[in-house]
Design goal:
265 residues; 5-stranded mixed beta sheet; alpha+beta; 8-stranded mixed beta sheet; 35% helix
Amino acid sequence: MSQELDDRLAFALEAARAAQELILRHYQSPDLTVEAKPDESPVTLADRGAEELLRERIAAAYPRDAVFGEEFGETSGTSGFRWVLDPIDGTKAFVSGVPLFGTMLGLEQEGECVLGVVRFPVLDEVVYARRGGGTWQQRGRAQPRPVQVTATSALRDAVVCFTDVESWVRTGRGEAFQRLCASCRMARGWGDCYGHVLVALGRADVMVDPLLNPWDAAALVPLVTEAGGAFVDWSGRPTIHGGNGVSSNGRLQAELLTILGGHDP
């Protein structure tokens, strides 16, 4: 079974690099058109083109695998594997010319997240993991190196990441956000997948999202857990379907969930 995952990991790394090349052709283009989806989130030709590229490659290499993507929904499969795709996680950053967006490929096996690849096209950096194989970072064509989460044991010493304040207010968690910021050493808006990956890399201790879709989370679970951390929803369940998510080094999870518990009155 590890060989199946190794083969799919090698495939995912190459597919993500191909998507990077497509995305960079649109990055900071003066002709880029930005449309609004029904939920008012932005989408571009780069989002759709990158997901189409990934789907075409998966269909050619693993025609029995299912695919679930942000832009084009779900295609059924029979192998027990399902790819979960977010072609550009952080489209708001992408359209603003901020380089901290990522292309995400997650892989589930019988519903369990077993492989994740997150590539940052502008940074030419990739972080990846598969079940039982640890988490690795590669910049450009340099040799990959293993990474792990921090050993921080108290929230007062922690670096906490978030995406934006508006999503906390919209979900009735504005006071929880204030409590969290008051309880940590540093709170910074290094958001979207970049914040979660910072946890896996050991550069931040916590990343919290009050709104999270499955395609935002599937690739992150292996990255964070194989680096020694934990990914859970706000009720403490290890799931990508909770509608929110917390990546941490694991040692801070109980303290975090206490602060995050309950909606604002």
